[in-house]
Write a structure and sequence with these properties.
globular; 216 residues; alpha/beta; 6 helices; two-stranded antiparallel sheet
């Protein structure tokens, strides 16, 4: 098993027994059942340093905001604990595109995970689902807010308000993670060393989880 796979397993393992508690907290915030987490992405800046043997073009990591970066996608629960991190895509990859490239997408699509946490509502089975922004595709396991609402669309506006209140959790988790591990503010690494950067980012996520659990 590779170091990256070990880290992925550690991230998921830390959360299995806490999912139902997270569901309850999300429900208290939004009155919505079976929300298992929030998903979003952010840019981790990279130093523009080249080694003698460049294996990837630096332009691949030059984003629309005019700096080199790697796109990191995470899923966190209601307690800001990460149970999935995907850190292997260069700069301007669309959130929806990155989601389809990560292992989490394949696991959700094949129903490999979260299927034992189904609830019955009015005789219908509801599997857990993630909350995202409009950049992600809508699926049974992935819900997002409306792109635009008219003032008369009261229910849509209320729904969007609930979604946005949940997404604040993951935004705050990103800020807290980066402030906790200052290396994430600017990696002083060569842009072709993506595997090392990926492992470093995931280690930060694992230690973040451990810190939060020790506080509990």
């Amino acid at each position: 098993m590779t170091k990256t796979n070990c880290l992925v397993n550690a991230l998921v393992f830390l959360q299995v027994n806490a999912w139902r508690t997270s569901f309850a907290r999300f429900e208290n915030l939004t009155s919505t059942l079976n929300i298992c987490g929030a998903i979003d992405g952010t840019h981790i800046p990279l130093a523009n340093l080249l080694s003698k043997k460049v294996t990837l073009a630096t332009s691949d990591f030059f984003n629309r905001k005019k700096f080199h970066s790697m796109v990191v996608q995470v899923v966190c629960d209601a307690n800001k604990i990460f149970w999935n991190i995907c850190a292997n895509q260069p700069r301007g990859v669309h959130h929806g595109g990155q989601f389809k490239r990560c292992s989490l997408y394949a696991q959700l699509k094949s129903r490999e995970i979260l299927q034992k946490l189904v609830v019955i509502i009015q005789g219908m089975k509801w599997t857990p689902f993630l909350i995202s922004d409009v950049a992600y595709p809508i699926r049974t396991y992935l819900q997002k807010n409306w792109k635009a609402c008219k003032p008369a669309d009261v229910e849509k506006i209320r729904y969007d308000s609930n979604i946005n209140s949940m997404r604040v959790i993951i935004k705050n988790a990103f800020v807290s993670l980066i402030n906790r591990w200052r290396i994430l503010k600017h990696f002083n690494s060569k842009v072709d060393q993506t595997s090392l950067i990926t492992i470093a980012i995931m280690k930060c996520g694992v230690h973040w989880n451990l810190d939060l659990q020790m506080q509990e």
